[in-house]
Amino acid sequence: MVERESAAARHPMLDVLIAGAGYVGLAAAVSLKQARPNLAVAVVDAAPKDVWQRDTRSSAVAAAACRMLGQLGCWDEIQPEAQPITDMLITDSRTADPVRPVYLTFDGEVAPGEPFAHMVANKVINAALRRRAGELGIDIIEGVAVQAFETGIASVAIHLADGTSLDARLLVAADGVNSRLRDMAGIKTVRWEYGQSGIVCTVAHERPHNGRAEEHFLPAGPFAILPLTGNRSCIVWTERTEDADRLVATDELVFETELEHRFGLKLGELRVEGKPRAWPLGLMLARDFVAPRFALAGDAAHGIHPIAGQGLNLGFKDVAALAETIVEADRLGQDIGALDVLQRYERWRRFDTVSMGVTTDVLNRLFSNDFGPLRAMRDFGLGLVDRMPPLKSFFIRQASGLTGDMPRLLKGEAI
What is residue 27's three-state secondary structure? Predict the structure, then answer.
């Protein structure tokens, strides 16, 4: 890693500049540089240096993404801190119900010894990717935002907030769901809010979870219990926004009491670690993923409801497809920033992204209510799936990311 003042001097012309040093931006940089060491790749991030180390969130990393991280030389570092999800159960009930019948269960392996997903702290993923980026000589320019950019015939001129200017053949925006670069590029979005917020926190409990994940569909929205290493679990708790804001602002005793009503006492006494936070939930899909010398990846291209736990995995699919598209074009001597090259990436990712957005939207609307006839229908459907092993296997493969037209990195193969 180098100081940002030297980046322009070291790279008079970058091949790729990636805006955003989260796991999507870093994975994109590592994927490109590992496959094509001749490419000049740098990452710029608006967040202050080391702020990523204060990220207390965790993510479900599907089997395909684990294979990709293995191919990128990161999984061996991440795995000791990763909790395999060994099985999963789904219930549909009200908060006050004395018993929550289990309607659907899943075994957690897509192959012998390979769980369909692991739970990993975001900062662990980020640290492993940063270490690998350093090994590959990728510059990470921190604490400065992209202020503006102008697209030319052969390159894009990128102006940073500190006055530095860089030229690149391609600018990749991985700067999150509220991407400023997407707006600068004039790319429109389709979006709506759900009137819900997701409360995220980590809890410690007395008894082991044995790798079990649980999703309780409650009238206000899904309440997910996701296993972490040790006797700890990650809670992703959907509530109406006004209720979520009240809960995170209340004192610890009230919050833990409300949490206990939903979590239950099966794992013993609960203790919340850190301060719970709430994020508004909605659906956002970019109308275009690319423009001349410009591409969106991760949450900058799509933001979905966490009901299926696929946010990180959609981002890694973007990375794998974009990297493969760019690397193959570079090997053929094509212009990696040309619109016709970038449109291959857009065609590859658009259908999967829209499908996942629609699926999570329908699931959230279907299960975030207490309408009696609809509850009866969905519970019958869950029970039917539970009695059909081939269908359950299909859903596990979908959740693992091991379906469809997969980029090579998601198969654990080199580009």
Answer: helix
Amino acid at 358: V
Q: Residue 391: its pLDDT value, please?
A: 79
What is the model's pLDDT at position 300? 98
Report long-range pairs for 210-213 (Cβ below 8 Å, ≥24 apart): 210/86, 211/83, 211/84, 211/85, 211/86, 211/87, 211/108, 211/115, 212/85, 212/86, 212/87, 212/88, 212/89, 213/85, 213/87, 213/88, 213/89, 213/108, 213/119
Helix (H, G, I), strand (E, B) or coil at 98: coil
pLDDT digits (tens, 9 = 90+) for 190-226: 999 999 999 999 999 999 999 999 999 988 999 999 9
* DSSP code at position 176: -
How much is the CA Rg of the chain, to the nearest whole Å? Answer: 22
CB neighbours of 410 closer than 8 A, spacing ≥ 6?
A: 64, 65, 67, 68, 316, 317, 320, 401, 402
Helix or strand run (H / E) with residue 344 = helix 339-367
Which of 97-111, 122-136, 210-224 tops mean pLDDT?
122-136
CA atoms within 13 A on the CB side of 331: 10
- Say how far apart CA 333 and CA 356 lie, in whole Å: 34
Residue reference for tokens 């990161």? 74
Distant-in-sequence, close-in-space partners of 219: CB < 8 Å, separation ≥ 6: 94, 95, 368, 369, 370
- Mean predicted lDDT score pLDDT of the chain: 92
Beta carbons of 172 and 28 less than 8 angstroms apart: yes
Q: With contact defined as beta carbons under 8 Å apart, do 272 and 202 qualify? A: yes
Q: Name the β-bridge partners of 284.
A: 191, 303
Segment 161-186 shows an average pLDDT of: 96
Prediction pTM value: 0.93
Instruction: Give the pLDDT score at 374.
Output: 78
CA 64 from chain center: how many Å?
13
Phi, psi of 10 (to 5 degrees): -75, -30
pLDDT at 399 (0 to 100) = 87
How confident is the model at residue 102, as a pLDDT? 64
Q: 228-250: b or e for each residue (b if 16 or more CB lie within 10 Å)?
A: bbeebbbbbbbbbbebbeebbee
From residue 38, give the alpha-carbon distance in Å to each of 15, 26, 136, 301, 405: 9, 18, 11, 28, 28
Separation of alpha carbons 261 and 351, rounded Å: 39
Q: In this predicted structure, what is the pLDDT of residue 279?
A: 94
How far is the C-alpha of 292 from the C-alpha of 150, rounded, in Å? 11
